Amino acid sequence: MGLRARKRFGQNFLADPGIVRRIVDAAGLSPTDPVLEIGPGRGAMTGTILERVDRAAAVELDRDLAALLRNHPAADRLELFEQDVLKLDFTEVQHRLGTKDPLVVLGNLPYNISKPITARLRVQRQSVDRAVLMFQREVAERLAAPPGTRTYGPLTILTGTWFQVRTLFHVSPGAFRPRPEVTSTVTGWETRADPPLPDELEGALEACLRGCFARRRQTLWNNLRAALGSDPARALLDTTGLEGSLRPEALPPAAYYKLAAGWPSTDAGR
Ligand code: SAM
Q1: How many helices (DSSP H) and strands (DSSP E) are in the chain?
Q2: Is 166 exposed, middle or buried (0-12, 13-18, 19+ CB in 10 A)?
Q3: Predicted model pTM
């Protein structure tokens, strides 16, 4: 203790044991579950996790906090990765935990890198079974947004293709030290056993969503034309049978899967 919270690491520490318990309960842990905690900080959740499972892993970027965790009473059952979660290879975590089973990921996340963390989970999804993750409320709303709403967009569609994300409960700023400026929301993630899009179309889906949502207030046609040029845009609307006059947020994920399947490959890596 005694270490000052570092804003650049998104440090807002949980100070409410009841909230810690609710988050860990939501993961439904059994003793042999391989757990990865993202950003354990001063260990607010780590101790409770280690009461539930035999062994766990944690990834922490702040060296001072990592040093603190090495002195945790249950440190001999904690595999600590002192590094950036955005560069963490989850198969290495499985290896260090001595398992091939996919991980249960938990975290009160550093909010400054929420979106990149969702992308990292997507990239590492083969190694993820489920997750319980706390985000700032605005990001959680985007993750679980239905089509036709203001918050529905690329983050919703990309994440939802490979994970089923549910909103579990909200947490007020008073549960943290220091208090964040925003309300937080705990979300539950289940990796889809049967995703609705083949893995090889992931790059095309990303490119297609970048193009289609480049200007949210414009029509699908205008966005497609700007991204691809008139003739390819017209051809794509013809083959998919989609209505170009709609706004991008009006289209369900299935429409974007059709667009991704027909997306010109030269643009996939843009
Ligand atoms: N879990 C603790 C709690 O609830 O009190 C701390 C949560 S705090 C919001 C986020 C934690 O993530 C901090 O400990 C911070 O140092 C760590 N962190 C920030 N960026 C990170 C990164 N790129 N990789 C790993 N950990 C990171």
Answers
A1: 11, 9
A2: middle
A3: 0.95
Ligand 1: residue of 85, 90, 132, 184 to mutate (most ligand atoms within 8 A of CB) is 85
C-alpha 187/C-alpha 46 separation (Å) is 18
92 within ligand 1 shell (Cβ under 6 A): no
Is there a single domain that holds both residue 65 and residue 98? yes
Assigned token pair, 136: 């700032």
Beta carbon of 43 within 6 Å of any ligand 1 atom: no
What CATH number is given to the structural domain containing 129?
3.40.50.150
Decide whether any atom of ligand 1 lies within 6 Å of the 65 Cβ: yes
Distance CA 209, CA 267 (A): 12
pLDDT tens by residue, 218-243: 999 999 999 999 999 999 999 999 99
